[in-house]
Input
Amino acid sequence: MLHSPALRILALTGALAACSGPQEDISSWAHACHIGSYAMDAGGIIDIGASSETHLRWRTLDGRVGRIAAGEDGVWSGTTGWSDLADPARFELGTCEDGTIRVTGVEDSDGSGTRLNFTSQDIRFEGDGVELAGRLVWPEGAESAPLAVLVHGSEDWSALDYASLQRILPAQGIAAFVYDKRGTGGSTGSYTQDFDLLAADAAAAHATALDMAGDLIDASGYLGGSQGGWVAPLAATMSQPDFVIASFGLAESPLAEDREQVQMELREAGYGPDVLAQALEVTNATGHLLATDFQEGHEELDRVKQAYGDEPWFDEIVGEITRDMIIRPLWQFRMGYAILGVSTPWGHEPVPVLRQVEAPMLWVLAGADREAPSANTRVILTDLQAEGRAIDIAFFPDTDHGIMRFIEDENGDRQTLGYADGYLTLLADWIRTGGFDGTYGDAELAARE
Output
């Protein structure tokens, strides 16, 4: 959810990865010409995107994912999802001019495929004091279409280069506007987690997309993932979208995210209510310091460290930022925070913002999300529904952050296999129809009244 300011390297020998600067140009990669979505003769769509200078990543609309590299025979193969598990998929990529692929080992999509010809137009536009690099991607053959502005999570890499939804949505008839957030890729400025600034940039992206596509747009709105679940509703209060989607985000504050992560981690480690109550004292102390910009709470942090520092569970605390604050003297943490901090609004409260959003909203939640535990958010959204807010909720049980399927070993370590079945089609269907249009895998759907 939040891009940690990397305080675990407090010796400060690391690079400021979150700051703006030159980034790689993937167009120079030998395999960049194969990036695109392909309509398979056997049915279905396979998207191929960038992964690294030597790898590509493929995705299907039902959520299967793999990472592939070229073998000595020219056939591309690799692993499942983001795991180290071997995958049976094999890809033969045509020439750059061909725009074709041949696939085996991907059930229901084996055989030949032809790249979809999206209409793509790059643009530079003004954000809040910065110049942003954007792109409008239009579905093949569409005379009109709904449009989604893709709002970033906390990533510090180029969305223009790596965001697969800029193709996966157009492959389903939805236009997409993607842009590099400030301080990343081709955009100017410095990386930040100032939600108000990021929301102003998103609103500028929305206005730019409307100017570019004009009367061709049936409806327009925001699709924000992770941290974008905080930013997209804010952007909606600065503009007039027709819809807002918040996926694997939180209707709680960033401090609540840290607190809930710590509670979940300790529960999974087998600790009971007494320890959880003591850990809550710790996160309340670290949270108060952050929320007051270190003006209040020093004595309480000293107290909990003295009281619980020798307890075995204390060393197991991670959270979003609490561990960084408790494993070293506070002055040392603050030195790193002053250099690497990214203006995170720790006390941001989403609910008042959600009450200001007039457009219908879809919230997609992961039931086993370790990065953004969703239980409290589901309760909050259900209460907002009961108030009459235009909110739909899709809850995918047994999925992690990103609405991702995973396997877990005996130590609780997870390997990510791909998206939940139904997730990618849900996004497109809801944008197109303004509501749920059937069932989506194992998702538990709660439609607004």
